[in-house]
């Protein structure tokens, strides 16, 4: 991993491409000025590299500018549970910022570019710009919401419902970010990572994806997901299409 800081920064907050997306709330002049001073550099991360590790007290916090990754926890024998998927605009390292150490790990599923913030400056965000502090709380609540959805899947949804929900959720998030078309998306995550997230074996996940393909609902092949029947996918997943809502960008 290579870190570039100071004058070598490629993306200034004033020219952040994420701010052009309709899913993010606008910055005020004061917020832009604060974030420009809060950002300390950028970090390039190769696919498969760790960003933060469970039990670590990383001195940095990150916002994903480009690329995708996974959040996961592990048992002592190496068994892993994927607890979330990382996409552009997501804030990484919040647990270390408020609890001194991370309670889960984050790994890059693609090449990634991260905005870097010093953890020692984190308190200034709450002191100097309270609205930004509220935004951090909103992001933490959003992560709790995601965890609740996946816990519901693992605990109560059938295999078909779990996989349908995961595909719908990933596609919806990617579409909001301009990274997917209306009925398709390039899939950076592996079927094993999907299986880990929904609490199924890889074989069971593969069989379930085959059933969705045979029913003309969705197909995952060659690292691409095609959604042939979005309404049916929503019906199987058991969710309603939520109304669009602006989200903060740190």
Descriptors:
250 residues, alpha+beta, Jelly Rolls, Arc Repressor Mutant, subunit A, 2 domains, five-stranded antiparallel sheet, four-stranded antiparallel sheet, disordered N terminus
User: How many domains in all?
Assistant: 2
CATH homology group of the largest domain: Jelly Rolls
Number of strands: 13
CATH fold naming of the largest domain: Jelly Rolls
User: Which class best fits the helix and strand makeup?
Assistant: alpha+beta
Please give the count of helices: 8
**Overall helicity:** 25-40%
Give the radius of gyration: 18 Å
* Helix and strand run: EHEEEEEEHEEHHHEEHHEEH
Contiguous uncertain segments of 5+ residues: 1-7
Which second-level CATH architecture of the largest domain applies? Sandwich
CATH class of the largest domain: Mainly Beta
> What's the N-to-C terminus distance?
22 Å
Largest sheet: spatial strand order: 1-2-9-4-7
Q: Largest beta sheet, briefly?
A: 5 strands, antiparallel
The general outline is globular
Q: Per DSSP, what share of the residues sits in E-state strands of 2 or more residues?
A: 15-25%
